[in-house]
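User: Fold this, then the next.

Assistant: Folding the first:
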Amino acid sequence: MQKTEHLLESVSKIMSHLVLFCIFREQLRLKEQCVLEDSPQILEKLNGGTLLVGGLDISYSKNDSSLAFVGVSVVRIGDPASETQCETLAVDCNRITVEVPYVPNFLAFREVPAYLAAVRAFEARHASLAPDVLMVDSNGTLHPLRFGAACHLGVLLNRPTFGVAKNLPLLESAPNCFPLDADGPTQKHLLLQALLTSASSNPVFVSPGHLITLQTAVEITLRCSIYRIPEPTRKADLRTREELAKFVDTKQFDDGL
């Protein structure tokens, strides 16, 4: 019996390693398709008209790691001189079941499927509000493989994406402008920029995902910001938290009946 248990444990470990290896290979395959250059359409709309910026965020239940809500918002930014430079047009939210566990460096495989479904559902309901670029509450090139969830999502959707993260582990303090490059000071593509978007002393961390440069991602972030967290991801985050709280309260009430 003990020998059988050891054998099953060994098989389980081997299978886990095989799964991680396959995921790693897929991540490398997708990374080869990642483009860190600005889409011409983005530059045209950013400089000469209005740009629709989508925001994506996921809120998880503290008591059930498989329960979460994914939010999608769309914000329109226009002329910097306009009083209505940043206007929220729509916010959607859906409850999801998360079946993939969290594995460090492979967050994309846990969250990107939910983002993909949320974006497609949003665009089916709001065809005229399809975002030109997606801002993800996650990282883009700020990742051990330079290919975080924002990059992963952008490649699969084949549209511009970038990440805006609230935290940067291992960085004890950050100035207003703190760019990190990929391989040294002469590297063409910067990984991220720590950015103060408001009077807050805490920065957010912007990194390009796909079909966009860091410079353009930073410009869009600043033009979308009223508070510390830029409006696209802030609105999505607020909605997911609201819906999660309502769902948990309702479930607790039902369970008590």
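Now the next one, as you asked:
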Amino acid sequence: MLTRLLRRYWADTRAAVALETVIILPVLAWILVGSFVFFDAFRTYNSSIKATYAVADVLSRQTNTVFAYDIEGMQVIFDHLVRNSGDTRMRVTQINYSQPTDTYSVDWSYATNGEARLFTANLVDMDELFPVMANAERIILVETFIPYRPAFDIGLTLTTFRNFTFTRPRYAGQVPFDGSVTAPPVQVGS
């Protein structure tokens, strides 16, 4: 009798759909939310790379002196391109290579939103990342830092996407910088 009851219970398919729904629905919801979070992280990372390239390209085309307010303005444009609220940071550095001594040195560096400037002593840790350079050649290093907080907690933690790109000045041997002028000059008249 007990065997027959167990067989009948095992063969009973009533409420199987409800049980399967209870089991599979949370898995489907997690997959949907997870795919949204991973896609958003991928979108944020890719847009930050493209915005970094855009800032580097603008700087590489400069023939006049670049001022601190120019880089601050590029920070605003960067924030707009990545659709961020302004907690991103940027560091722009011009690096010079000396072939006889096989050393790199910082010509100038400027950072926004509290990021530290780059100094020649810091380049030792980064020299394997530099492109091949000729003697006395200069490159512009643009580094951007964008914090990413996932919309939902699915295992991704708060992370900072760090992007850096090197570019050579296009129309001059170097990009001159003046960090002493912090606001654009006011033009009166005309």
